[in-house]
Design brief:
Elements: H1 3-24, E1 27-31, E2 46-50, E3 57-61, E4 66-70, H2 75-83, E5 87-89, H3 100-105, H4 113-116, E6 123-129, E7 135-139, H5 144-149, E8 159-169, E9 173-181, H6 184-197, E10 202-209, E11 212-221, H7 236-242, E12 245-249, H8 250-254, H9 273-278, H10 285-298, E13 305-315, H11 319-330, E14 335-342, E15 356-368, H12 375-383, E16 390-391, H13 401-407, H14 410-420, H15 429-433
Parallel strand pairs: 1-2
Antiparallel strand pairs: 3-4, 4-8, 5-8, 6-7, 6-8, 9-11, 9-12, 10-11, 10-14, 13-15, 13-16, 14-15
Length: 437
Amino acid sequence: MDAYADHEAKCAKLVAEFAVARSRGASIGLRKSTSNLFRSRDQRSKSKLQVRQFNRVLHIDRERMIADVEGMSTYETLVDETLKHGLLPAVVPQLKTITVGGAVSGIGIESSSFRFGLVHETVDEMEILLADGRIVVCSSSSNQDLFFGFPNSYGTLGYVLRLKIRLIPAKRNVRLTHTRFSTPEKFFASIAEICASNVVGYLDGTIFSRNEMYITQGDFTDHAPYVSDYTYMAIYYKSIQRKTDDWLTSKAYIWRWDTDWFWCSKHFGVHLPAIRFLAKPALNSSTYQRLMRLSQKLLPTSKAEESVIQDVDIPIENAVEFFEFLLAEIGITPVWICPFMNFERSYDLYALDSNKLYINFGFWDTIPSAYGEGHFNKKIESRLPGLNGKKALYSTAYYNEETFWEIFNRTRYQELKKKYDPDRILQDLYAKCVRRK
């Protein structure tokens, strides 16, 4: 069967399943193969729709540099297909298991975001299953309110079944340059200068301590004196401190963080050479994701420690202040740094200042705590408004309802909900992301 005919057949079947689920009156969720949410969820009483089959790349348009792809396709699948044509998605989130639809209904970012913005800013069109069972197509010129309201809605306005996303030309390899800094002021000033010059293809950074941080610049090249391999015994993030220059294949660059889940693989012991030697097939985000979910189910949470898994976005002018707060009050290192531009388009549920450079701070660890539940996470949430910052909702949130909606645009969300889910078939955003329903 032709890819598009197959897609239409799957859509028809899903609409029928959706109608049955609605008739039962239970809340509706998705049955899928992968999830990169880090907040626990109560999934009782949900009718689960089978969407795993929406996992194909339908077409690569080489002339227009557009990928037509189903929403449950992972970025691993999409990258494999686009590289056959000498292309890559404009922004590829860091982990192979992230789905294209998930990166848009949530918030996706990577080291090309200072050029292209967040993942949803690289999307031209979406096909969305609504709560009434209809499938609609939206873009910047059709069903605009849904198109600009969908990012950060986390499946509470509908489910994305197909997307058209922009691609960029790729070469065989990426050359990396790691530059060390000893003060946050110079570190963030240099990031701003590089972003303004727009002379590199990729840009991110890593903070190892108060006086050791690195900017990593990446550029495509067809030639390399060697290419490094960080899929087995060598660990990518440790190479940043040891090498000034490095070369990776383009595919290896895109997945440089996946082998060790950035540096979170240490929680499973695979940073140790003896264990790592035996664990080669399991060195990937898919394995760590499954282990994490299993531990959440089987292991009790210690009251002497707190899981802090957060990505926060801070305007460049406030980056040094957040850096000082993070290292002094939270104390997690390493920290991933990813600059991104927010362009003129307004996305209602994750609104940022137009044409402004932001810094994403990604920090993920378990830290000792003698305080009540969520103490450090709440401290982070309390600090963000004074810095005009926002946090991603893939992880645990503790906001009260009033504060949450001040940040995430209650008025616009209610307008969208009234239009596209008037019967409240799908979850409410606060209930899903904070109450974890």
